[in-house]
Each structure stands twice: as structure tokens, then as C-alpha cells.
Amino acid sequence: MSHHFDYSADERLDISDAYCFAGPSDAFGPRTVFGMNACPNNAGPWDPAGYYELKVDTNEDLVEDITWRFTFPVDSAGVQHVVVAELRGREATDRNANGRIITPPSAPVGEVIEVERGIKIFAGPRTDSFFNYLPFPITLAKALNEGFFPDLAALFPPTDFFMGQTVHSVLIEAPAEITGLRRLNYWATTAVYDQGHGWVQLQRAGGPNGTTLWAFPTGTAGININSTVPSQDLVGRPRHPETDPATGVWGQIRDQTAVVVADGGTYNQGVHGRPTALAYGAYVADVFLPMVIPFIPGTNALWDPWQGSHNGKGLTEDAFDNATKVILNQDFVSGLTQPAKLLDYFPYLAPPPAD
After folding, report:
1. 320: nearest Cα among 150, 140, 128
2. Which of 2, 198, 216, 276 is buried most deeply by CB count within 10 Å?
3. Is the confidence at residue 136, as pLDDT, over 50?
4. Taking the chain, what is the end-to-end CA distance rounded to the nearest angstrom?
5. Is 2 inside any structural domain?
6. How many domains would you assign to the chain?
7. How far is CA 276 from CA 267, 269, 328, in A?
8. CA angle 24, 287, 312 (to 5 degrees)
């Protein structure tokens, strides 16, 4: 569970999760899977007027070099199809650019589509693979916004809120010929067109729990992380991050975290401890930002910065537990585990439960 609380007005455009991990290698090298879950709580079909975008930065400048844009037009018979445009270079950052369509005409939803250069595409309803007990993130988000150390142990025993829930998933599996072999940064967005403002980005999902915890609803500093881009995430980081005043998203995360760990007295404990609460907050801000999923193609994905791993995000790790450990500088184990069956082939997420 990494992105479930910052609902858009139209739940069809609400991103619940983003993930990135290794697919199978072949004669052309490793393949990488990029995915997004949207439309949680069985919100119905995709918004035919919306953009669902998977964005990849291939040179670590936090600006997308490839965008795969999914749209879902409805034909005269009322059937929804999937269209995927690939945009590269400057076009990848421009929602007014058309890109190049790589799907065949009237491509069906709910089926694996194999297209040029070995790319695989899927868009369809799937069983939500992520798991959490909602009182945990609700309480932690409230603690960060109000400035107190949360008593998560008092909320036990947990149960999985997302058991059997259906989401709408869009996935791309791309070979190294397209992504390269160096470290990537990945994130997902949704957007709609507004007559007065043009294309408006509604949500951005990257590193787990960023917008869940610090944009609830938009953070006490009034910063809507969902409307921003990764290149803005570090703008407010000062020259001396452990002592100087900070602004922007980075400053919001540092300062809110510092208040919480100061209240709990955990900031100077263990291997991650820092001499001051503000210094520990700076460490946390640097873990969570920029809010992207870094990944080296062909390697094992695991987002667990508490244990030193910040590489991709798979479908089985408990991202909330791992995030909570870092934020509170305190070991936290919910005991929840992956409830959904996963496939060992593309699109990896299982079909939705039968009615």
C-alpha cells in the first residue's frame, strides 16, 4: 500500500500503487517491468478522457526520457480499447505531444499485447497485490501532520484491508534495448485536460508512501506533491541540510519528521541515528526524495531502505512497514504478508476474484 489516501475527485484516475522490477532475461538482455494500479475499490473502467502515464528517466537527471501514455477510447459500440503512445526525448515531458502509437488498432483491454521491439503491454482489472491495515497509515500520517510520536502497537492486531480488492493495472515490459542497462528512475502519473488550464497532472506515484503520508490531504505546508515533478523534489534542500532552514517538499518531510522523532526520542538510536532530530529528519527526506523508483535493470527489486536496499519495488515487499521503520527510526513489523496469488509470467498480477 503506497498511494491510497490522496484520492482524486474522479477515483478512476486515482493511483493506488506504482512498481518496477525485473522481468525475465532473454537473448537481448534483461527486461524491466513498469506498472501502475489505478481505479481502486472497483471504481469501474478507465476514464476515456484521462492520461495514464509510465515515465522513465534513463540518465538520472530526474526528467523523463521515455513516457508510455495509456488512453482508453470507447468505440461506437460502447467497447473500451487501449491505446499506448510512446514519447521520447522532449516529447516525453509534453502532454500536448502525440508521440507514436505502438498498439494495434482497437487493441483489447484485459489481454497481453506484444508489439514492436519485444515490448509487452497489459491493461486490465487485476487483484490488488498490496496489503496494509488502514489504521496504521492513517495514524502515521496524522502524527506527521500534527507532530506527535504514534503508538502503532496499540492498533494491533492488523487485518488486510485490501484483501480481494480489484484494481485496474497498466503494465509495460521492455527489453534492455529500450531502457539501457544503467540505473533508471521510474514514476507514474495521471492527468486530465481542463479547458482553462490545459493538461493538469492529478497524481504522481513513485517511491512508496510519499504522497500517502506527506500529502494527506496536501500536508501542513500546503504542498501538493501530486502536482509536481521529480526535478522539483530537492529544490528546497539547503546547503547544510541538517541545520539550515529548508523549503519545498524536501523541507516539509524533514521538518515534520524531526518533530515526530523528537517527541518519541528515537532520532539518535541505532545505526541510523543522528545527533539531532533535525539531522534525522534530513536523513529521512533524503531517503524518500526524489520521489521516484530507482532500478538497475536485471537486478533483484527490493524497496527496503531500513536494510539499505533502494532498488525497484516488487509486488511482495511490505512497503509500509519498511517506510515506517525509516520514518520513526524504530523497528516495525505488522505481520501482514502477501495474500494474493501472483503469476510467474507477464502481467504478473493475478486476475480479479470471481464474482
Report:
1. 140
2. 2
3. yes
4. 23
5. no
6. 1
7. 7, 11, 14
8. 5
The long-range contacts involving 6-9, CB below 8 angstroms and separated by at least 24 positions, are 6/203, 6/211, 6/212, 6/215, 6/216, 6/217, 6/226, 8/190, 8/202, 8/203
Which is it for strands 15-22 and 31-38: parallel, antiparallel or unpaired? antiparallel
pLDDT digits (tens, 9 = 90+) for 174-191: 999 999 999 999 999 999
Q: Is residue 249 within 8 Å of residue 289, measured between CB atoms? A: yes
187-234 per-position pLDDT tens digit: 999 999 998 889 999 999 999 988 888 764 444 445 688 899 999 999
- Please, is 170 exposed, middle or buried when counting C-beta atoms within 10 Å of its C-beta (0-12, 13-18, 19+)? buried
- Does residue 6 fall inside a structural domain? no
With b meaning 16 or more CB within 10 Å and e meaning fewer, what string describes 226-237? bebbbebbbebb
Residue 201's domain comprises: 11-233+290-328
pLDDT band at 28 (very low <50, low <70, confident <90, very high): confident
Contact (Cβ atoms closer than 8 angstroms) between residue 258 and residue 266: no
Query: Which contiguous run of DSSP H or E holds residue 282?
Result: helix 277-288
d(CA 177, CA 186): 17
Q: Is the pTM of this model over 0.85?
A: yes
Give CA–CA dist 198/191, Å, rounded: 10
User: Which grid coordinates belong to 125?
Assistant: 482489472
How many whole angstroms separate alpha carbon 55 and alpha carbon 135? 31
How far is it, in rounded angstroms, from Cα 216 to Cα 103? 37
Q: Is residue 30 part of a domain?
A: yes
